[in-house]
Known about the structure:
The chain is of the alpha+beta class. The chain is 66% helix and 12% strand.
Amino acid sequence: MLGLNKIIPVEPNINFLGLRRNFLIFSIIAIIISISLIFFKGLNLGIDFKGGTLIEITTKNTSISELRDILSVNYNDVSLQEFGDENTILIRLQNKSNQESIETVNAVKILIKDKVVEFRRSEFVGPTISSELLFRGFQAVSFALIAILIYIWLRFEWQFGFGAVVALTHDVLFTLGLLSILNVEFSLATIAAILTIAGYSINDTVVIFDRVRENLRKYKKLELVDLFNLSVNNTLSRTVMTSLTTLLALLSLFIFGGEVIRPFALTMIIGVIIGTYSSVFIAVPTLLIFKFRPQDEDD
């Protein structure tokens, strides 16, 4: 099958747990950097969360710097960026009411009408709504993590739930850090992508945890490190194939889906890669902290 059996051995025997300390150090450094970026650089909040007026235009014989010079005379807080190609530009302006937004759009049209081929769309989000949306978005992510913890706890043991939430928290923070570095617009679609990433990552983790539980019953005398390595290797082909097929779909969406969907697709691509990594190198090694064997009482 496209030579994938050469990439993924039929019975792999890779010492994943032997690399756990190196990847743990890498992840800790990445999370510290991500948290620092979130607090000091911040996210590129979209109009959903920042509030204000957004205008999309198609230009002719002009540049962002020239448009900024024209608009900055009348507006202190103005942001311009290319959207898909150099002739399509997004203009963001801060204002506090819908009426003010209408006046702003009309004023902008007059100021730059000679530079514009088409005013494609305009949107307004008030500051109260935008702050509430931001709060609700992070609330949704927090509730998702708690619900996943409860689900894993009920299905397995609480130690598995702890490992899953550690991995998911790692995924969310790591993804947000990369979004900050790449200056990807953070909107409601991004929140949806993060929640989807959480679901994808936990699905991958549950498959490995299920094999760990099965092997704990089957190999009661096997060292935990060897048992966890065996479990990860048992599910490796499934993990890799699922991730690759998902990434192929997301790459198509990223390349051909258009500029509006691109931040969502990019967030998903980042999340799938990080989620696959954390399922193997974060969730499973976390179980070693407890050194437990739930079936000991059956011996």
